[in-house]
Amino acid sequence: MAPDEPFTVAAQKYQPYPALQLRDRRWPDGRITAAPTWCSVDLRDGNQALLEPMDLTRKRTMFELLVELGFKEIEIGFPCSSATDWAFVRDLIERDAIPSDVLVQVMSPMRTDLIEQTATCLKGLSRGVLQVFNPTSAVQRRDVFEADRQRIKDLAVAGAETALRMRDVLGGTKLSLQYAPESFSQTEPDFALEVCNAVLELWQPSADDDIRVNLPATVEAYPPMEFGDRIEWMHRHLAYRDRITLSVHPHNDRGTGVAAAEMAVLAGAQRVEGTLFGNGERSGNVCLVTLAMNLFSQGVVPGLDFGDLDRARRVAEACTGMTVPPRHPWAGDLVYTSFAGSHQDAISKSLRKREQRSSQWWDVPYLPIDPHDIGREYSALIRVNNQSGKGGVNYLMRTGFGLDLPRRLQIDLSKLVQAYLDEHGGEVSRDLLWTIFQDAYCTSGSPTSAPMAAGDDPDVLLAALAQATGSRFPYECLELTVQDMASGSSCCFAHVAVAEHAAWGFATAQTRSLAVWLALAAAVEKAGSTNIATSSP
Question: For 142-152, how does the pLDDT look when each residue is reduced to its tens digit (9 = 90+)?
Answer without folding.
Answer: 999 999 999 99
